[in-house]
Amino acid sequence: DMNVLEQLELPRLVTVNGSVTIAAKQMPSLSMPALTRTGGFSFIGGDYYSESPFTTLELPALATVAGTLKLGQLKKMESLSLPALKSCTNIEIDALTLVTSLDFSQIADLEDLSITSAYELTDLKLASTVHGDVSLNGAQRNYLVRFSGVETIEGALTLSNFKGSEISLDGIKRVGSFTPGSCSELTTLSLPDLEIADSLFKIFSFNKLTTVNAPALTRAGDLSFESNYELQNLEFPVLQEVTRTFNYEGASWEYGRSQVKITGFPGLSALKKVGKITISGCGHLTDFTGLKNTLTSLTADDWSVTDCAYNPTYEQMKNGEYKK
Questions:
Q1: Going by DSSP bridges, is the β-strand pair 129-130/101-104 parallel, antiparallel, or unpaired?
Q2: Three-class SS of residue 177?
């Protein structure tokens, strides 16, 4: 029974064509000093309700994981070092609750990275490009990590359940999409270096968020804000193009609309090219001056404003009737 296994020695194991899968609640350490390549590697130390005594994972020669590297429920392990790892398609980490830093900067072919419940994690080093998705979930227990090395995430960057009223995501210049999840204390979100969001930039259902600041963003595929009642400041001073749709959705019922705080879009005044604009459910929104430079890229069919304090038609905007 692997759950009662206390010791496992494999000093001469070099290659595993399939996957190494270990689930051992009583094992304090694991050393595979000669292992250089495996199709996958999974070590689960326990479960959500129990605490494994595992503290030490030694894989000094492991250079290639052809599939997924999965580490979970290692709540007493204080550090993780994989000094030779240069090739790994997917990494999944769950409940490495004491680890403070992770270095995957030598992995040039990383496609997807998922980290959940790493409560003490402060530093995450990655290669300059991640070819798929990066998903970080703080489980309401830690602050957002500091990224270093990475500039491009070709897939989705998803952040959720982090503490703190302010989050600044430094260093990342390009993402496929940016879709942060709930961060209950967040009031200010800053992306000081982000230049391009190829597919989607979406802010959805933040209860306290007042400000989104992206001073370097020049282009987004879709730009969407939904159900962010306190949001008032969209600061995108050099954003010139939204390839598909700019969408701002407040609330669908009358009382909810009265609680949506936004009054205008002055921080979008650099926006000149957009495929479509849809705005709805904003009970205090009266000033559309910040969107006037988009009109030459639109037709009447591409402009929709409903259930706001002021609902200008495309023709009214063309006539300069930007505010009520």
A1: unpaired
A2: strand
